[in-house]
Amino acid sequence: MVLEDNVIEDSASVEDDFDGDDYDYDDGGDYYDDDYGDAGDDDDDYGLVEDDDVDDPGAMVSRRPKLGYTVLQEADIKQRQEDDISKVSTVLSLSQVEATILLRHYNWNVNEVHDEWFSDEERVRKSVGLFERPVVDVSDASKFTCGICFDLLPCDNFASASCGHPFCRECWQGYICTSINDGPGCLLLRCPEPSCKAAVGPDMIDKLAPCEEKEKYSQFLLRSYIEDNREAKWCPAPGCENAVNFAVGGGDFDITCLCSYRFCWNCTVEAHRPVDCETVTKWMLKNSVDGENVNWILHNSKTCPKCKRPIEKNQGCMHMTCTPPCSYEFCWLCLRAWSSHGVATGGFYSCNVYEAEMQKGNVDAEMRREMAKNSFEKYTHYYERWASNQSSREKALEDLNRMESENMEKLCNVQCTTMSQLKCITEAWLQIVECRRVLKWTYAYGYYLPEHEKTKTQFFEYLQGEAEAGLERLHRCAEKELDKYVTADGPLSDFDDFRTKLTGLTSVTKTYFENLVRALENGLEDVNSTACNKIVSPRSPASPRSPTGRNGKGRGSRGKESPRAGGSPKSVDDTSK
Description:
This protein has 18 helices and 13 strands.
């Protein structure tokens, strides 16, 4: 697979030339030729604004990605819920309580309520439990016998739902409190009369339930507005009370809550673009302790032939003795009784029986253990890198918060500059945090790449390697090189050069990851087409767009023509040259 002759040629100089001071940095654009450049326009820009938009507020707004979702706080949820109740109440000429019961029955879908109601009002009333008039007339009675406790009490001690079945207030309170304490099922509460389907609405709760139960019921009702709504979900971050309303056809499923937590709308796992939800689900299941314990046992142990307990071999010889009370002695290789081993089997500490079985192909268990061992080693390789990038991302978030809360003001004072001049530092750290997240999930993607698709695997590893190398350069610059400017006793003359370098590294790393994300979302299909030749490493700040044109002979050129992205490099699959 000829990658290094073409694609790497342009990117090989990135790290070598970042130390040069006489290079100009372009705006990070024009990394692709006209055919492939359009594809990049639809990619997320990781939340960063291009340099040439900074002085144009209108351009900044226009360049921000249009969100297909709305983050809702508790007050917003209540307001939307009240608006929907009022809308149904007005259109259908119902009370607020009846409108609430209707919406709850139809999962807070206003349009469905209207359609069903105008289609067959009688059927809807019957299924929901909204009675137009009481089925029991008790207006003339002065005393009633409660159908639950059977006490004869004055009529002012009784209450009933829309059906009119009378029960004493004490029994009603016990019935309601028990239902509320049992959970959200209280929102579907019906009349205590076994044969009656009348709904018990919020008015009965307000009238009969104690304050604590009223509050619980209100929370259940509020949460049902999100949990029963197909277009809304709660933010899965621990302790976050925000919800997200997602517009159908919104496109990107990555959600960023007001609490700064990012998650996937489909599976509610943390944002995992460019890896699909199915792969993430398999990977998280693979990471479960139980599943990997099984692999470890298969890798490191065998079962005792007598008691079937797993045994780990912790010494060199093949003579195994199971723990008491079993105490069975057997051969580690062939799993037969140790007493049967002797001269006939090749000696006490060698086993010709096992060798013979190997030649006959009768050691399936051993093959399974070897396969499990190889699978475990492959998993460990990808998991360690997945976990390392996760911890690096968490550390980068801590560094970003510390930079914003402590070091930015200090840096302004030491280097005699303004906060606006230090925007590149915040952008660099945000880029690092985002790239660590993307890189983490690429290892889950790589684990499930089919082993027989060698070309795709090589192409994936190349793109991943280029992106990771760029990220490491940026992370090192933001973490290590910045420190000397923060701890300096006074302004340093090369601080402006550092800012320029950091800006260039941020732009280059961003483009590396855009290439990687686009390739993975396309299923690495470009590896078998000429289009993949048009994905190249971003132009390094050491080789910017030439001021004199595109012949690469302007300032910072190496003295030879620098090929544009999508020129005519060799095909990735062309192994004949």
